[in-house]
Amino acid sequence: MLFALGATAQVDRSQLPKPGPAPEIKLGTYESFELKNGLKVFVVRNTKLPQVSYSLLIDRDPIVEGDKAGYVSIAGDLLRSGTTNRTKDQLDEEVDFIGAGLSTSSTGVYGSALSRHKDKLMALMADVVLNPAFPQEEFDKLVKQNKSGLAAQKDDPQYIASSVQAKLLYGADHPYGELMSEATLDNVKLQDVQQYYNTYFKPNTAYLAIVGDITKKEAQQLVKKYFSNWQKGQVPTHTYPAPQPLQKPVVAVVDRSNSVQSVVQIAHPVALKPGDADVIPARLMNDILGGGDARLFNNLREAKGYTYGAYSSLDSDELIGKFVAYANVRNAVTDSAVYEFMNELKRIRTEAVPQDELEKAKNFLTGSFARSLESPQTIASFALNTARYNLDKNYYRDYLKKVAAVTPADLQRVAQTYVQPDNAYILVVGNADEVAEGLAQFGEVKHYTAEGEPAKELAAGEANAREIIGKYIQAIGGEERLNAVNDMRMVMKLSINGMEITNTQLKKLPGSYLNETTMNGQVLSKIVYDGGKAFMVMGGQRQDLPEQQAAALKASAHPFPELMYTQEGISAEVKGLETVEGKEAYKVVVSNGSGPATTEYFAKDSGLKLKTESPTGTIIYKSYEEKDGIKFPKQISLITPQGTLEGEVVSIELNPGLKDTAFAQ
């Protein structure tokens, strides 16, 4: 025993154990067959649970939707809206009755249920695939929902960054670069959706994965019963030119004047296809660079404290892949964060990764791959990928052997091939005034709109804030009429997620303001400002507002606060031209020095205000109508972090003679 202890003590614990051979893995088995119409079926039997799932995939090339961007995704959603045999309500009822799930997309249908309902589930799925009704009413609802979703996303810096990145990397005429908008949705007709389905939903380009407590024989009987009458057809293919790489870095800045942090993305396309020999070493390299607890994370978060997390991704794709390094950082450290990003991207290219760091990444990838094999869905995915991408039949069986064989030299080679910081877009969505100057050290700074278009520069002397605001005041009725209004009551009805709320605003000169929101007669929130003091009621609890917050409400007390923009203590500055709701608009940042600035957008042609941005949300103004010679927006969209409220002004009273008691403190 003493001898054994002595031998153990001689082990050098400071050295990592040498890696052993790649573990032998046993992939789950699958069986396959093909119908005469070309539908390819893969069956993965798993009897651990009495469940079954069907996943139908339409394997088509990406599509350029042009001025009708959005019709493809709508087509996928509309498949779930009823068939020629069942209305949407009937379909929902039958799915619910068997406790199943059934969802659709533009590239397929997915369903799951208990295995005893496998026949019924297949019948419902086949009805959806083969007999869609495409009801006009449901189509109209989906168009409206997509527009509402776009309105909410327009104010999301992550969505803005994603949209602009896509347009910069691929271009507006590429399927990965075009963007859906309200304008393109207005062009989409029901016939476009039907045409998409008729063109691309063919069995000869489809794959069906069946997973669960079912045998191949049972699967064959079901698939033949429900899908053998699906008619094959010629499906168009598409090719697109590869995006041209940049010759030097370009700093692309999207201004969001109210942002307190920047979204940073360093991105460029990569020519890496699924199944390429470089996919595995590239995966390991990216795990080391920008995985969960990796170099970017440890540098920008742990060492520098610039962000909560910094990561990277390297995606393969049959058409064109991409590399992205990304983080959200404080405005004050945006340029410093980009500097560290660039350092790490260059280091992974120029310095060999230490063997112990590589082994750690290999161990992590090996473990995650092995864990994924516990799911029968993984085996189905492997089967589909092997068929779709024409992979070697042993690609996944030999996966871990290929992982084990990767060397530091392999990592450096793929890094030099697929990480190109000197040919990348450095995209920053944030406060341009605070960050643009510091970013100039990394390349030419170009300004873009939230739609990915080059920001239009104002010609010298084209317009100043005083002129823009003056034009707005004239457009809504003129200074004389506006100054004749001493008090005002406005009532709006707002709806969100099927709920309706009422918002009432009272304004009285020289400085009293009330904003009350109710639902079914109950007060949800209330803000009152009077004589320089303010309080808020929320959830039945009253809270006096600090002096600075109260001062920020002073302008709200004026029936037409724009009349105050030229007063001492309030600054208004033109920041350029942008497109709002399809119209060119001057962007004006307004600050009263006692609170956060707001950004106002005034139409270049009409002078009317189109949008207001503030830290609490965005308001879009539509459909101006006249009341006593003064124009007010009849409809608004209020975009908040909690969702989008669609509102309509139901009444406006000018000079109603409001009593001071309405604003009692």
CA gyration radius, whole angstroms: 30 Å
Number of helices: 20
Give the name of the CATH architecture of the largest domain: 2-Layer Sandwich
Give a short account of the largest sheet: 13 strands, antiparallel
Strand content: 25-35%
> What is the H level of CATH, i.e. the homologous superfamily of the largest domain?
Metalloenzyme, LuxS/M16 peptidase-like
Distance between the termini: 85 Å
| Secondary structural class | alpha+beta
Overall outline = globular
Average residue-wise pLDDT: 91
Tell me the domain tally: 3
CATH C-level label of the largest domain: Alpha Beta
Q: Kindly report the CATH topology of the largest domain.
A: Cytochrome Bc1 Complex, Chain A, domain 1
Percentage of helical residues?
25-40%
Strand order of the largest sheet: 18-17-16-15-14-13-25-24-23-22-21-20-19
Strand tally: 25
Which residues form runs of ≥5 with pLDDT under 50?
1-11
Describe the fold and architecture.
It is a single chain. This protein has 665 residues and is α+β, with helices and mostly antiparallel strands. The chain has three domains: 31-158 and 174-227, 2-Layer Sandwich (Cytochrome Bc1 Complex, Chain A, domain 1), CATH 3.30.830; 250-448, 2-Layer Sandwich (Cytochrome Bc1 Complex, Chain A, domain 1), CATH 3.30.830.10; 465-663, Lipoprotein localisation LolA/LolB/LppX (outer membrane lipoprotein receptor (LolB), chain A, Clam). The protein is 33% helix and 29% strand. The protein has 20 helices and 25 strands. Strands 18-17-16-15-14-13-25-24-23-22-21-20-19 form a 13-stranded antiparallel β-sheet. A six-stranded mixed β-sheet has the order 1-2-6-3-5-4, with helices on both faces. It is globular and about 80 Å long.
